[in-house]
């Protein structure tokens, strides 16, 4: 099959009897060319099937106007909201996105980083996989002065630019709320403690227990993945305890919804028998019964801030090194799943 020749600005100029410089200015919507001429040239370009050669343009400018986004997963309301925030700011600034995900694998994360580097992205926004232990695969960007902004899952003690919430305070607030509701034996279901988000929430959980003279018990901590089967396994581990907890802090709303269902199927009444607090403020928390108390994790705002800071750095109006860590405010949202006091008063 014969491949059609790519239409160029020379073809458009020849068709309309104008100079290639005029065509070039018109296609860039340059006001030095009259509006009527711009309209005529753009209409002709569209009818002829002209496509701008972005590759050649990027080679000339050394800029691709592309941002790489590395995610640890895609199947998450939180990640979807972060992406929406990134996309809003990027599109307004006329940047394209290349989105890749590691599926919680550092090996795939390394491959993705190399691919984005080879695609000559202008900058990177990244959230780390569960088993990432160092940032050596991001050094290639640093060597070429390509900025990287980490969000959510980061190395908090690194000097890299990052956007996070105060996970310690959020874990503390969730646990303190359960204590305020009368819980004295509080379990914690979490994920890989290699990641700052889970280790810091765990630290907040332990500190809230300590501040309220409650003993930390390792048997009440369950470390699992974030899939449905992981949450089911965690719930069964709780049910297998000799003495059941009277409260559970779960660091993911989807997992919390699964755990709640398994407990309810086993005859547990929530929150009367076990009060539950989740994390993320995913939509699922509003449709489960009882509705889920949770920590609001403002993903859309996090995405906007990460993209805004990166693009401003690329434009030279902001230096990422001046403020390496941005902390977004989170808050406890109280719903029925944790209100043990109200449930016991109606017994």
TrEMBL record:
Organism of this sequence: Ginsengibacter hankyongi
Keyword Transcription appears in the UniProt entry: yes
Record Pfam families: LacI (PF00356), Peripla_BP_3 (PF13377)
HTH lacI-type domain segment(s): 7-61
Gene3D superfamilies assigned: 3.40.50.2300, lambda repressor-like DNA-binding domains
Lineage: superkingdom: Bacteria
PANTHER family found in the cross-reference section: HTH-TYPE TRANSCRIPTIONAL REGULATOR GALS (PTHR30146:SF109), LACI-RELATED TRANSCRIPTIONAL REPRESSOR (PTHR30146)
Keyword Transcription found: yes
A GO term for molecular function: transcription cis-regulatory region binding
Annotated SUPFAM superfamilies: lambda repressor-like DNA-binding domains, Periplasmic binding protein-like I
The name this protein goes by in its record: LacI family transcriptional regulator
């Amino acid at each position: 099959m014969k491949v059609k020749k790519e239409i160029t600005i020379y073809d458009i100029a020849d068709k309309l009897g104008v100079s290639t410089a005029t065509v070039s200015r018109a296609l860039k919507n340059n006001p030095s060319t009259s509006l009527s001429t711009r309209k005529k040239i753009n209409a002709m370009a569209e009818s002829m099937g002209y496509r701008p050669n972005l590759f050649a343009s990027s080679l000339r400018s050394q800029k691709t106007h592309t941002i790489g986004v590395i995610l640890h997963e895609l199947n998450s309301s939180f990640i979807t909201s972060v992406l929406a925030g990134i996309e809003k700011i990027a599109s307004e600034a006329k940047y394209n996105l290349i989105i890749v995900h590691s599926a919680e694998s550092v090996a795939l994360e390394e491959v993705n980083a190399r691919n984005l580097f080879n695609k000559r992205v202008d900058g990177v926004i990244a959230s780390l996989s569960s088993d990432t232990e160092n940032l050596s695969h991001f050094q290639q960007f640093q060597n070429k002065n390509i900025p990287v902004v980490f969000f959510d899952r980061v190395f908090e003690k690194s000097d890299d630019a990052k956007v996070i919430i105060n996970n310690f305070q959020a874990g503390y607030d969730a646990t303190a709320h359960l204590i305020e509701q009368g819980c004295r034996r509080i379990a914690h279901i979490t994920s890989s403690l290699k990641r700052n988000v889970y280790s810091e929430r765990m630290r907040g959980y332990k500190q809230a227990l300590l501040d309220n003279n409650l003993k930390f018990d390792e048997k009440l901590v369950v470390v699992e993945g974030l899939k449905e089967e992981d949450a089911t396994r965690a719930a069964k581990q709780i049910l297998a305890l000799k003495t059941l907890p009277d409260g559970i802090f779960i660091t993911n709303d989807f997992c919390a919804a699964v755990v709640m269902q398994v407990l309810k199927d086993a005859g547990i009444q929530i929150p009367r028998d076990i009060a539950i607090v989740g994390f993320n403020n995913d939509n699922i928390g509003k449709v489960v019964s009882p509705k889920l108390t949770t920590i609001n994790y403002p993903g859309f705002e996090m995405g906007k801030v990460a993209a805004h800071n990166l693009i401003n750095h690329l434009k030279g109006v902001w230096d990422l090194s001046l403020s390496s860590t941005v902390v977004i405010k989170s808050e406890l949202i109280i719903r029925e799943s944790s209100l043990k006091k109200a449930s016991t008063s109606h017994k």
